[in-house]
């Protein structure tokens, strides 16, 4: 069980800051997913920053669309997208309303509700792999587009909440290029992770998809 100090919700002004301040500061924070079958809590160990219309790697680079609408809304809300026709991934919206920056939640350690997460991640060889990667994280927590737009920094009962947890000391934070990002956005060292943590996903450079002949 998480100690009571860790269950203090992060305030909205935590997210209403520049994206490169928020992203590394999310490491060690606690994400709680409340489900009808019980809660799952996860300690964040890896994230990636996406800087909206200033960032070629961002979904919001070319402006507002029905898909990315939530990114332009208030900070502290959840942006969920569907990718490769198979997987959901979740982000936390940052910066002032209308700015469209967000942090992708790439990996974490399940610290509560592992038995429930295991039922969703049957292919995981051990508990360290339950949320090792953004699609695995969303799957383990049972996150889909129905949760898009959820307010994650509120004391009220919501399906997703982000809590204070225990921030990771800066000397234990590492950063490097974002995974699988192509072109100009591929050079930004905006992936942050906890050094030597076994739940962090492996880095993979972008590989162009080949068209079938």
From TrEMBL:
Its EC number is 3.2.2.-. The keyword Hydrolase applies. Keywords: DNA damage, DNA repair, Hydrolase. Pfam families: Pur_DNA_glyco (PF02245). The keyword Amino-acid biosynthesis does not apply. CDD domains: AAG. Transmembrane segments: none annotated. InterPro entries: Formyl_transferase-like_C_sf, MPG, MPG_sf. NCBIfam families: 3mg, PRK00802.1-3. Belongs to the DNA glycosylase MPG family. This is Putative 3-methyladenine DNA glycosylase. It comes from Streptomyces thinghirensis.
């Amino acid at each position: 069980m998480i100690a009571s100090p860790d269950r203090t919700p992060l305030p909205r002004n935590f997210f209403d800051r520049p994206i490169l301040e928020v992203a590394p500061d999310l490491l060690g924070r606690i994400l709680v997913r409340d489900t009808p079958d019980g809660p799952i809590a996860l300690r964040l160990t890896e994230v990636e920053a996406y800087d909206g219309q200033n960032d070629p790697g961002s979904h919001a680079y070319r402006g507002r669309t029905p898909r990315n609408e939530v990114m332009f809304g208030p900070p502290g809300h959840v942006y969920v997208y569907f990718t490769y026709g198979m997987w959901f991934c979740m982000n936390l919206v940052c910066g002032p309303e209308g700015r469209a920056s967000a942090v992708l939640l790439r990996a974490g350690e399940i610290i509560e509700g592992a038995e429930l997460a295991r039922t969703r991640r049957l292919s995981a060889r051990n508990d360290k792999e339950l949320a090792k990667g953004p699609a695995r994280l969303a799957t383990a927590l049972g996150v889909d587009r129905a949760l898009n737009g959820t307010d994650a920094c509120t004391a009220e009962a919501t399906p997703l909440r982000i809590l204070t947890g225990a921030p990771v000391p800066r000397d234990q934070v590492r950063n490097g290029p974002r995974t699988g990002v192509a072109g100009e956005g591929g050079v930004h060292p905006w992936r942050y992770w906890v050094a030597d943590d076994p739940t962090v996903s492996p880095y993979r450079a972008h590989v162009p998809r080949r068209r079938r002949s």
